[in-house]
Structures are given as C-alpha cells and as structure tokens.
Batch of 4 targets.
Target 1
Amino acid sequence: MFPPITLEILVLALGFILLLAESFSSSSSKRSLAKIAIFCLGWVFAFSFFTDAAPALPEPGSFWNFYSADPVSMVFKRIALLTTMGVLLMALEYEPVLAANIPSARQGAGTGEFFVLPLFTCAGLMLLASAVDLVMAFAALELVTISFYVMVAYMRRSHASLEAGVKYLILGALSTGFFVYGITWIFGLTGETHFAKIAVKLASLHGSDPAILFALALVLVGLGFKVAAVPFQGWVPDVYQGAPTPVTAFLSVGSKSAGFLLLLRVLEPFLGVASIAPKVLLVLTILAGATLVFGNLAALPQNNFKRLLAYSSIGHAGYLLMAVACVGAAPSAFGSVGSTVGFYLFAYLLMTLLSFLVLTVVSKHSKGEEIQHFNGLSKRSPWLAFGLLVSMSSLAGVPLTAGFYGKFLVFAQAVNAHHWGLLTLGTITVGAGFYFYLRVVAAMYWNEPTESSPIELTTLTKITVGALVAGILFFGVNPKPVLSALQQQTAPTTVSIH
C-alpha cells in the first residue's frame, strides 16, 4: 500500500518526462508520446487500487490537512485518469486536423505539447478531487484552467479556435477572480481555509448571515462557470465548437467532474448553518431549474453536432444540480447525494467520451461536424454507428443504459427531498432530450449517406468503442460496483455529503 499522493506524483512526473522527451526528440511525428502516455496512465489507474488512505488524524500543519483520500475522491481520480486516456486516444485520431492548423516547418511538428498538456490537466483534476482546503482547491483549479487555456486555443490557424481561446481566457479569469474573492471573504469571516474548520467557525457565528451568504455567492459564481450552470454558461457553446474536439471532450467531462465534487465540499460547511441553509438550497434549486430548461431547450434547434453536445452538457449540469439541491435532505433509499453525483458523472464520462470519439473520426473523414455528415453512417461504418446509437440512447436516458440509471438516481433524490417542481421540469426536459439525441440516430440509420467512401478504423479505436459500449450497457444493468465504491465507510477526516 502506498500513499495516495503517489498517484498525482506519478502523473506529474510522466508529464515532465514526456515534455523533456518531446523537446529533445528529432522526430517530426509525436504520436508515440500519446501512446506512451495512454500506456502509463493505464498503469497508474491500476496502481490506484493499491494506495492507502490518508492519515485519519493528521499532525498540525501536516500536508494531509489539505488532502483527502476518501473513497469518493478516489473514484473521481479514476474518472480523471480514464478521461485523460480517452482524450489522448481522440488526439491521435485528431492529429491530421491539428497539424494542419499549426504553423510549422515539418508535418507533425508542434503537436507534441498537445499530447503532454492533458497529463498536467489530469494531475490538477486529481488534486482538486482530494482538496479539503480552499487554498489547495484554488491551486489545483488553476493548474487545470491554465492547461485548458493553452489547449483550447492550440490551433493557431483556426479563427474559431483562437476566438474560443480568448472567450475562455477572459471569462475564466473573471470566474477565478470571483472564486478568490469568495475565499478571501470566507477567511475573513472564519480565519480558516480548511472545510471542516470553516464548518465549526460558521456554526458559531451570529448576526453575520448576509456576509456568509455573500461569501458563498462569490464562490458559487466561480464554480458555476466551471460546471456550466445557468447563468454562467454563456461561454460553453462557442468554446466547445471552436476548441479542438479532444479538448472539448476534456472540458465536458473532466472539468465538470472536479467542479461538482468541489461544489459538494464547499457547500457542506454552509449548510451546517441552520439560518442560511434553506436560502442556499433555494438558490441551488433555482439554478438547477434554469440550467435544465436552458440546456435542453436550446439544444433542440442545433444542427451542428458539437454545438448540440455543448448544450447537452449544460442540460446534464442541470440534472447534477438537481441532485445537489437535495443535499440537505436525508439520504434516499438509493444512497447519498454524493454517490448519486459520482455515479452520474461516471456514466456521463462513458457516454460523452464515446460521442466525441465517434465525432472525431467522422469529422476527420467527412470534413465537417454538422449532423448531416452523420447521414448513412450505418452503411459507412456499422461499428461507429452502433457505438453512437448506444451513446445517444444513454444520454437520452433509455432504460438498461448507465445514463438511465444515473437519471433514475437523480429523480429518486428529488422525490426523497419533495422537489416536485424540479421533478416536473426534469420530466419535460428528458422528453426534449429524446428528440434531439434521436435526431442523430435517425440521420445515421434512415438517411442516405452524403459520401460513399467507407470509414476505416484503427484497431485501438475499435477496441475503445467496444469497451465504452460495454461499460455503458454493463453499468446500466449492474451499477453496484461503482455505487459500492462511492458508499464505502470513510475516515474521520474525510469530507462526505449526507
């Protein structure tokens, strides 16, 4: 058994080693970097099952005061590792498009950093999942965000990518400012930055409710940007459409996963204050309802598949916020809010990575990302069409898929908390989701192909599509392995949501 921080150290060391290897490599092709990274991350993922828990009673001033290795955070670390492996695989498929949009003297030169930067993003996401201190959370969040700043604007010959990079940079810096200002207010009120100590100090404050609410509001603005909650979602459609497709997948899954875990950790101290807990839950309920309606209804008229997935991402953030709004209620018969959010994000990882992988391959062969480019895909590549069929079905919430069980858990939490308004909105928006997701399925199986050339797949892509399809179907029927990992008993220092 090894300390859990070993995982982050291994990922960071791998990133630095590959970055040095890329700098001194004379080869113009950098594909080997991505393959090495995928192989090594697979070993780190396996290694994660042999790590020990953080000390139950850390010494004063110890690093463990900033770091938690409870079962929930370990699941989120594994989500970050799997997401990064999937993104690197997509980057291999996307390399011809990437190389064509990077000014360089040699074909393939300039793509090396694109294969290495996701490793630093992964390390930041893993640290963010374990952060139980606001300072640690901010440092990890900045590691993630700065990496994304570079990757979003990586295609320097693409005006869309540069525009996306500028928008993400400006709005990201603005949200960071709100988050830091919120941390400042919290520290000013409590004199602490550790979540558990903040909870104790907030519970003892009297007559400071407006100041507490203002501090939480500032933090929620910063985190609302990360999870794409309304009204902080304005950057999502343009950034998702303009960024390289693998980066869009990373933004959709990785950033959202860590953001929601951090949101749960931040909320717990404030919900311990009886006088403000109802106000906080009311704000979360309004955010969830607005995000549900905007994300799903705005996706209805979209004809660009990448933009459709962007609005879909906002809609799924609404379902997750719907679960978070139930955090003050007693645990339902199906588990806690934390386990519900964890399983939903795991399911979202599988179906979103599969959707973006198919999009990457199809757009490379069809030179476009419109839904019409998926016309007749079942004839050009039956395996890709079947993979996208399973993915779209899971995103819509068809029974016997992981996406259905994730939505079922969210609705169970809402029923348990008597959020009938959110349940009504959730039911309506699920119906809207069936329409825009199944539009893509209809194009693949009912429309004639616009191009007759078949799509050839690499062995690695075929295996990955098969693994993601199997995961969606297996965990839709048997979700127990993931839920058991999320519901294990935790150490006394662990921050858990009940």
Target 2
Amino acid sequence: MCGLCGFLYKDPGRYGPVGHAMFDMLTPLDRRGTDSTGVALYGPPRDDSYVLRVRIEANGDTPGRVHEALAGAGAVSEESHTGGNLRARIGYAGDLGTLTDLVEEVPETEVFSIGRSMEIVKDVGDASDVEAAAPYKSFQGSHAIGHTRMATESLVDVAHSHPFWARPFADISVVHNGHITNYHKLRRRLAGKGHRFATGNDSEAIAVYIADKLEQGDSLENALRSSVNDLDGTFAYLISTPQGIGVARDRFALKPLIFAEDDEKVLIASEEIALRRVADSTDLKPRELGAGEVRWWLR
C-alpha cells in the first residue's frame, strides 16, 4: 500500500512552507499506512557545512557522545535534540561515509541523512505522531518528499521507515511504494562497487542506484529511464536531489501516482486528495503518471 507525496517550487530562488505542505499532504494518506511516516526536506544549501539528522538513544549520554564524535571531525555550529532525534550542523571537508561511521560508532545511533540542504525526519506512527516527536511543520524550503508506510517486507521500526538517504551521497533521498523483486541482485552489484547499505529494505537500493548513476555523469532523466528497465517488480517512486524531484512508475502501472503543476509549483501524490489539500485553485487538473513513464522537475 503506502502513500507518496512531493512538493516543489519551480523558481530556483523561492523558498516557502514545504514542511507544512508535507504535513497537509501526508495526513489524508495515513489510510495507506501508519506504521511510520517521514519527510525529506530541502532548505537553502550551505556550501560551508553539512546538516545531519541522527536517531539516538533518548536517555543516557548518547547525545554527548555524538557531539564528541562530531567535534572530533569538524566545527559543530548548531546542535539540538528532541527525544530520540538529533540535528547538528558541522563544517566538514572529508568523506561522508567516514563521517557516518564516526557517528554510528556510538551505540544506539543511526544517521538518517547528511546534506548541504537535505534533512530527513521520520518515526513510527502517522504525520501527527512524527510532528510531535520531531517537529517539521515549520520548515522553510524549496522542495520535499514524504511517505506513509504499510510494512510488507521488512521490520516496523524507524530504521526501515522512508525516506531513505542514498548514503553516502549528500542530499539524495527516495520514497517508494511497491516491491523490487531483483533487489538482492541489484544490491550485490552496488555493494560490489563499494556502496554500503544501512537496512535490508529494497527501497534503499533505489536511492543508491540513482545516486550511483548521477555520480557516473548520467542526467536525472537518463537515470530515471534506466531504472524502469533495471528495476524488476511493481513500483512507483520519487527521488529527490538538491536540484529537484524525479518520479518513475513501472511498466505494469499497479502502484498509483498522480501529479499536477502550474507556473509556480509541482504537486505529486498517490491520491488526489493529498494534492487538493495544498492546491491554491479548484482548477487543478491532476494527471496520472503512465505505465513506464518518468518525469522530472528541476529548479
């Protein structure tokens, strides 16, 4: 089942309440699954630092130990934590995989995202539960993607919740509805190239697959088109990068995905009700993504 949504301002200089848009779109999609909910939010990029989102053990000395790990790697300019969620900004010039490992050497931690502009917030429960655990509605940004999950093939916990970060590639995330039947083959091929995975969820492999294509110099368009042939199974997914959002649907078109756009913005969701929650006009004309179709919007 699962529910997907996305929101993007087309003007590259425009930022607005994308956190609130995600909350409004995700709320009616909770009927598609409330095992977990999450968002990947993109704010103004900072070339001098990275922002990290980390799941931590809420009690004990875990926050202090994470701070020590980060401070040993670079200059920490911002840091806060709410419950089991920690956010930090660090000036860092090294490999992001190494930075991830440094943080995750602290017991009971998991790095959800690292990016110049991207922040992933997710937890078990519905959109309101996640907002209470790690507030995101007030986030001002350029674009965002979101997900409500009904677990079918992996654990019901925060680690297996969407969105997934394409570790260790900065600012690339995915949300997915479906099942990738050649996941193990795909993962082995990507692991053979040196890529590492945090979970056994098939959706994480989509993020790394697209990120790998982009690293090789492919355009987002070509990476999306290749995925329709290279990914077996039934799927609809949204991939988000610092520049925009891409979407793809498998050739059987069994998983719903619709979109609508005007001169200012793009709206994407599994169901029309989610689009209507944030549409400015009743003249909105949603269109279903076709079988095997891909689309992309860059700011």
Target 3
Amino acid sequence: MRVVVTGGAGFIGSAVVRHLLNETDHAVHVLDKLTYASTLTSLDSVSGNRRYGFTKADICDASAVKAVIEEVDPDVIVHLAAESHVDRSIDGPGAFIETNLVGTFVLLQAARAHWSRLPEPRKARFRFHHVSTDEVFGALGDEGLFTEETAYDPRSPYSASKAGSDHLVRAWWHTYGLPITVTNCSNNYGPYHFPEKLIPLMIVKALAGEPLPVYGRGENVRDWLYVDDHARAIRLVFEKAAPGSTYNVGGRAERTNMEVVLGVCAALDRLRPRADGKGYADQIAFVTDRPGHDFRYAIDCSRIEADLGWSQTETFETGLAKTVAWFLENEDWWGAILARNYSGERLGLKQP
C-alpha cells in the first residue's frame, strides 16, 4: 500500500516510518512541517529507500496537503502531526489549537475528497488512522485503567486540543463515512526522543552534570510504552481493524516519575559512571510542580491484544536500557538538537 505519514519526522512518526520501510513492502511518504521537534536525521537510516518520499508542508495548508495526497494517491493516511508537549501548551496554547484542531480538520477534508474518488476495492480498504493520547481521558486515582469506553475529561490545553481532534475524526466517520481508525497511547519512550520529554531530558542533563528536575515529589504515575512497540500497533490497526474502531495502546508499565528518573540514573551508573564515583541520583532536584498536573494515567490494552494479537516486546526495564544506551551512542543526534532548537530550559510555568 501507499501510506502518507503526517509528522513522520517526529519521534513516534519516524519510528512508524522506519518500521514500515524495514518490515513491510509499503511505500511511505512523509508530510512534515519540520517544527522544532522534528528532524530528518531521525530518518537517515531509511531516506535512501526507493519506497520513501518526503514533502515539507504544514497540515494547516490546504493546498499543500491536497497536492501531496494527489501526488501520492495513498491507501492509508497515518496522522501523527501534532503539537504534543503539555508544558509548551501551557506557555502557548494557540499553536496547539491551530495544528491539532485546524490541521486535523484540513487533513480530514482532503482525505475525504481523495477517498470519495477512489474506485472499489481501494475505497473499501482505505484508512485514515488518527494517533492520539491517553491524556484525553483526564486523571485516574490510585486504581482503575483507561478503556476505550472511558469518558473524555482533558485537563491541559494539549489534551483538550487532542480530544477535539479525536472528536473531529470520529465525526467524519459517522457523518461522511470516511473509514477511520483511532489509537490512544500511553507515554512513549525510546530512541530519537526529543529531549524536552522526561526520559531524554534526564539523560542529557545527567551527562551534563546538571540538576535533574523532578516535578513536585515525583509521585505522578504514567504508563510507559516503548516506541517501536507502538509503531507495530499502529500498523496492525490500519491494516486489520474495522473502520470506526478505537484501540488503546499501553505498555503495562506504570511507574512514578521518581521511579523513572531513578531508573535512568541506575542505567547511566552502569553504562557511563560519573568520574567522581558518585551516583547520578545525587543530581536529582525537586522543582515546582506543573500547573494542573494529572496524577495518574494507565491504559487497558486488552482489546488490541485480543482482537489483533498485539503485545509488547519490551518491558520497561529492557526498553529503558536500550534507550539510555542509544542516547549514549548517538550524542551527535541530540547534541545538534540542543544546539539548534532546545537548551533544556524549564517550560510550562508562564503566568497570564
């Protein structure tokens, strides 16, 4: 099949592109604006593949989106392009509304026009696959899991914009018949992760000898999903799931933020000990909590396991070890990003 991946130069998007080109015969065309969090170096390993294509474009640009879709003539559109960092949404919510809501609308309109012109059986197998987040469900207490039936209750500008985009996608299925599928995932981690997020930020700050900022007391809980496992799930859903389906994708790996940071420190202690013989955990520093910080997220992924046979290949421990090792071996990749796009400063505390 021919697959368009929006946001394909981002963290999860590039993992999807690498998986599709390395593990399938699909042709993949990336549509990416190349914002601060996207880099084509994440696709260097597959950029020479004859089945790979790339267009720099904004999903809010209707004419550019239409041109890409007409050129590629896709069987599948995997929609990953999004502003995705909660702290940045607190500082500047406008970009999240524009990209996540308006951009999704523009893409849906172009996809619908394309799909309506397809002949059978291509029309029947076409999929618009929308990738979303568990954050749309709000916060959990000490017990319970998010399921596909959990009511939406977003708490941040980011999660509200993603909830809105989810509703738009489902509306285009119910109203226009556009064959869509949706996945809501838990926190991803792994290679090529932009260093504003928790795990890579802790790695690069630890190596720089800087304090490791932990929000509040580090008690907030997240479910962690290795990015390559997520990429396999996305492929399974758009290849096999029925139109209109929704699946939750999680790692069955709940950890407090403090447990995650300590895990990063322990891995660094093993792989690159500090010169002074001390542990990296000595660098941990508690900082003011994020405004409106949801306490706990946890995904019930039993539906995708039962329906499509998906399962995780990495535990949190094996995945974290691979991630830390990758960052140690690829300092050129993230060093260039720090020099160009992000210097590790604290985000999300801007006051009105």
Target 4
Amino acid sequence: MSKIEVIGLGAGDVDQLPFGIYKKLIQSRMVIYTRTIDHPVIDALKAEGVAFESFDTMYEEEEQFGAVYNRITESLIDIAQGSEETLIYAVPGHPMLAEKTVQLLLEQTEVEVRIAGGQSYLDDLFTSLKIDPIEGFQFVDGTSFNRSELNYRNHIVFCQVYDRFIASEVKLSLLEDLPPDYKVTIVEAAGSSQEKVISVPLEELDHSMEISNLTSVYVPPAPPTLLNHTFDRLREVMKRLRGPGGCPWDQEQTHESLREYTIEEVYELIDAIDAKDDDNIMEELGDILMHVMLHSQIGEDAGYFTIDDVIRSITGKMIYRHPHVFSDTHVNSVDEVIRNWEELKKEEKGHQRQSVLDGVPSHLPSLAKAFKLQKKAAKVGFDWEDVADIWKKLDEEISEVREAIENKDAEEMEDELGDVLFVLANLARYYKINPEIALNRANRKFSSRFTYIELQFSKKGQDIHQASLEEMDAYWDQAKERE
C-alpha cells in the first residue's frame, strides 16, 4: 500500500526542528512536498540541498480554502500511488495542529498515512503571550470559524491568519462583540529568531504589521461588562438577582406572581409590532426573554428544571416537527408543512389529550379563545362549507339579540350577544384574520382619534365635558382625515 509520511516544520526556525526530523529531511533523496513554500525552515533546508515542491498555486486558483485543501489531499494521494517510495509531506508547525490537509489524509483509506511529528508553536506562543491555557483557551482557525462559537471568557488565539484579507475578516467578526479600541496581540513566528509581538486596538488589526502564514492573533478574555449581549451573561445576571444579596422583589417572585406581568409584556410586544417600531420591538422582546429567564431561574432554584431544560425541549420539538428540514421528508407547500406539524403534534400529545378541543389555554381572552376553538373544530371537518352560510348565521344571531332586547331579558341579551361575537370570530377565521389583533387595532384607532378630540378642546381652552356631540363628531372626522 502506498504511504505518506507527514512531517511538521515547527514555528519558523530550523533550530526548533527535532534532530530526527532534521536528519530525515536532509537525507531525503526525493522531492519533499509542502503545503506552502513560504516558511523560514524551508529556506534553510533548501540552502542545504533539500528539494521542495509546494501547492501554493492552488491558493491562487481557488476562492475557498476548503477547495484548496481538498485539491492538495487528492494530489498527494495521486502522487503517493504513483511512487514506490514513501512520499514526504511537510507542513508548518505540528501536523496535528490546525492542519486541515492532514485531517483529510487521515480520513481517507487509499494510502497509508503516518505522522512523523514536529514541534508545535503553542508552547512558544504561550510563553510569548505570558498566558496559562489552563485558565481557558480556545484555538481558532482564522479561515473557518463561526462567530457564535467564540467564547470571550477564554484566551482566544486565531491561527492561519495568512494575509490581510483573513485578518480583516477576523477583525470584522470580533467587532460585532468587542469595542474598536479593545487591545489584541499579533504574534509573528512565535519562539523563533524572527519573533515579533505587538499589541494594537482591534480596529487596526488588519493594517498594523506584515501578515504571513506564521501570524497568530491573540484576543484576551473580555470583562463581563463587555459581554452583556451574550446569553451566559444574562443567565448570570438573573441568577445574581435571585441569589443571596440579590433583589428582594426578584427573590420573592413565583410562577404565579409573574403571570400578569408576563401577559402584559406579550401585549406590549404586539403593540410595538403593530406600530412597526423596531427599537421598541427589540426592547419588548428583551422583556419577554427576561421573563423566560426569570421563570427558568425560579424552576432551577426549586430544583425542578433549568433554562437548559427549556432550550433542550424547544430545540428537540423544532427538529422533530420539521422533518422536511432535519430529515428526509419532502413537502411541496406551506399547507403540507402545517398538516405534518399537526400530525406530529398529535403524536406527541395523543396520550395526554382526549378531545380535539384540548390544548386551548384557559386564560386566553374570550375572543381569541373563540377563534382557537373554532379553528380546532374545523380541522376535523366541523366547519361551514360556504362562507355565505356564516353570514346568514350572523344575521340570524343579530335578530335574536334584537328580540332579546325587545323582551328586556338581560341574561338572554348577554347570551345572544355572545353568539354574535362567536360567529364574528368564525368569520375572522375564514378570512384568515386574527380577531383579537383586529379588535386591538380598532381599540388603538379609537384611542388615537379620541385623544385627538381631547387635544383640540385643550388647545382652545375648552372643557370636553361641556362639549356637544356635534363638536366632538367634527373633530372625530378631522382625525379620520389625518389618518
């Protein structure tokens, strides 16, 4: 079976090479393949007659690093299979540290791969930066990382910062979380005679010094005050508020005592959405998230559940109910998505719910509850076939209200008016209008117009209580025209 031996060239100084590795390279009669020729050790070895061939041209031919690494791996396999001797492949640093091509070689089965070793530059890097990784350390590939995975409580080191473009990408990602003047450190050729270490404001990261394939960027742990936008920080704050020395109000809250406030926050969010006020939407969503965290902290304090359980539950539910995204189910329309959702929901709740109408929250406002009840009943076919029949039903119910009024029967009037509202909720459902939201808009419209009437009387120094209906109607019409 063909063989590839992978050798690490160290951080950038030929004196850092283990003697055995150095001897193997010097005595090689074959061309040594290397991911990049741009390494000080290669220059020193070439001066001693060692022949190298690099894959640098592939970096210029491909737009994505992933494509480069795949091509290098495929080329090495082809070359090894065409040779009777073991192919030597040299990489910067240590083969098992931030070397994607080595990982790809180890994953394949066409040729045998052996790691011959080399010196990692991390020891020298920790020494240069004077940090202890036991405090928490994250090693990140500058060419391929997700900002959401960065842990700013740890020491963070970005490797593979080959050029200014990558340095710029790293900078822009960090600026999403850290201020422009946050100090970061650029380390060049750690531990070698060419080592350079400078600290710069984050905003100057990509234009402070020459960048090469021996460049690393160090981001020191951020203080909690800079992490107020992170989930873990919010969790800490809520725990502190409920803990010893915290807030007396937060400490005495229960699930029951928070109910009315939670409902208020949801309605305040709806108001912000209706007003198309993005800043207020953001603020109200924060208030709702605060309630989620506070309820979860109450659960944790009581030993029943934590926010992790809450997140695990909803994450599992979303994955389970979206098999067309996370599995191999195929859908052709939104209606199919909804049908699948309901079927999966029924499977989840089947052992708990015996009635089609089960699951409607008892504390829903009556109009919203009527809408929800009829929506559930319609799913099993209990529905009007023609909307014209709903309109006829509405006329019938209104007639019954009038009859109850003529009879001066207060209980019957209440009963029949409730039927009218119930039919109106059904009409709203047919036309895909949420009656609660529609009525809320009407309430807001009335409040706006009436406030305008009050303002006009106030401007004239008149008491609205002394105004005539005709005067108020005139201002009402003005308010409508303004809208």
